[in-house]
Amino acid sequence: MVACKIQSQGLISFRHFITSSLGVVVTDQSVYFGLLSSAFIVGHSVLSIVFGYLALTHRPFRLIAVGTSIWIVAIVICGISEHVKSYALLIVGRVLSGVGEASFQCVAPPFIDRHAPPARRSFYVGIYLASVIVGVSSKLDRIRN
Predict the structure, then answer these.
(1) Where is the chain membrane-spanning (predicted)?
(2) Which of 57, 107, 111, 145 is the most buried (most CB within 10 A)?
């Protein structure tokens, strides 16, 4: 699956996928890498506002469940895109991945705040936010090496 390969091999898998699905030479692929990142950011940015508003009127656990379900569907779509050699399908998967993560990013801190013991709330929110940074830095380290 593309999603699994991306995690383990990074840009090498993307280069091969873009070359095989679009027939673009390696030197011309930067725009396609940018589109993949932008697709995620668009889904995440736009739906962060929506999920932030919904967090005021709906139960956080349900919003997290909906977002996680969307994210799972997105990962499956990204995986299928490799088998059908469809860059457009990968873009759709990336947008949906951003949507799924937006729900979690907006709703998890208030959820922790509401359900954690008062003396431990700050610690748990700190762990949650630090995990985001650790995850990003581990991916950047893989790309660098």
Answers:
(1) 31-56, 63-84, 123-140
(2) 107
